[in-house]
Amino acid sequence: MKFRLKITLCMLGLLSVLFGVGGGLLITLSFHDSLEREEASAYNAYQMVLGTLQIVNAASEQTDYADVSETLRQLSEQNEGSWSALRLYTASQTVYEHDAADLDRPDELPALGSCSMRHATTDGDGHLLALSGALEADDETLYLDMAFDVSSLFEARQAQLWTYQWVFLLMAALCAVLSYTLARVLTAPLVRLSEASRSIAAGQLSTRVRVRTEDEVGLVARDFNAMAEAMEENVSRLEEAAARQERFMGSFAHEAKTPLTSIIGYGDLIRGQVLNAEEQTQAADYIVSEGKRLENLSAKLLELLVLKREDVSLSAASPSALVQGLAARWEPLYRAQGIELSCECEEGWCMLEPDLVKSLLVNVWDNARKAMDGRSGSIRVRCEMLVDGCRLSVSDDGRGIPPDALEHLDEAFFRVDKSRARAQGGAGLGLSLCREIVDVHGGSLRFESKVGEGTTVIAELRGGAA
């Protein structure tokens, strides 16, 4: 059963209870009030007749109650319509009777000075209010029965009940229409939520619900949109991760296949003894070169796996001392290639993993060296202290990087110029390793470059203050 139908049925049930009980109670109270007024009026009329008979009987000298009967006849003619039946009788005979065919005598004769009241029905489904009392006449007791027609009260009540039933049915129909319409309006956002959830389940992750209200339903709609947006972002990240993994596997297979093909080819030539001594030496040198490239590739992959799977503990260290100590070792090698390596460091301490930071610097410096394309140039290293770590920036005046390649630099096996990188022995994993090292330190890695002017790599390490 739909929720809107449940609301409609609840409203109908509530209307039935409240309107039914209230209306029925109002009609009943009105009927009893009218009946009580009729009873009071009938009692007064009965007491008037009874008092008149007592006066007449006291003044009369007749013993056959002729004066009493005449008095009752005259009263009936004068008060025609006030009562519908009248009977005066003794225990043995009827003294006077007027239209009393439908008036039954009481089951027990009333005592002197009392007046009993009862309700009776006629053969024509009429309703009578009967009163019975007794008076003393000489040495004998007379009994007086009077009946008043109250059928109009019962007919009025029945008419009110019929009117009430039709009004109740009309109100119920109107309530059903209004309740269903209102429930449809109130549950419309829930229907849209259901449709949106089915759409998302079918793969339409961009589906959202329009929020038009500020009530609880609107709050649910906003929370649903927030959940859908978060889910879409998570799925997008998963898809990007899957795509990167797919590219990683494809690139790894290609990187491993190229040197293996060369090694197998040259090895097969050497085994076939079809090369002279000089060619064999060249083939052996190529095999060693490609083997070292495979060794470098496996070492880089191993470092990446270690960083992804192991927890790294940071310790207090001086970035300035670390940078300057590493530069002192590498500066002679770079100077021999016509490259000037300079450092500008700010003193301070922060939380680092020294070996990983050294690996970060070596990889970035090596990329800067390769960007020179064998010509002279300069590599400038700058170290700045931050509140919660340090900032390392490495700038070179090499060939630069195209803007469309900057966002892919830290992807595994990505190389701006594949042929030049392979000739220089690069595997395309250095900056991926740098990204992992920066992530371990809770920092960020970004690149700034202009083609023909050089590149700046900025690594912010936010492992905390020492």
Number of helices: 10
Can you tell me the CATH topology of the domain at 311-461? Heat Shock Protein 90
* First-last Cα distance: 65 Å
Model regions low in confidence, pLDDT < 50 over at least 5 residues: 419-426
Q: Can you say what the CATH homologous superfamily of the domain at 311-461 is?
A: Histidine kinase-like ATPase, C-terminal domain
Written overview of the protein:
- The chain is of the alpha+beta class.
- 57% of the residues lie in helices and 18% in strands.
- Among the domains are: 19-156, Beta-Lactamase, CATH 3.30.450; 311-461, Histidine kinase-like ATPase, C-terminal domain (Heat Shock Protein 90), CATH 3.30.565.
- The strands form 3 sheets. It has a 5-stranded antiparallel beta sheet with strand order 2-1-5-4-3.
- Helix 1 (3-59) runs antiparallel to helix 3 (151-201) and helix 6 packs parallel to helix 7 (354-370).
- Mean pLDDT is 81; it is low at 419-426.
Task: Give a brief outline of the structure.
By secondary structure, this protein is α+β, with helices and mostly antiparallel strands. Among the domains are: 19-156, Beta-Lactamase; 311-461, Heat Shock Protein 90, CATH 3.30.565.10.
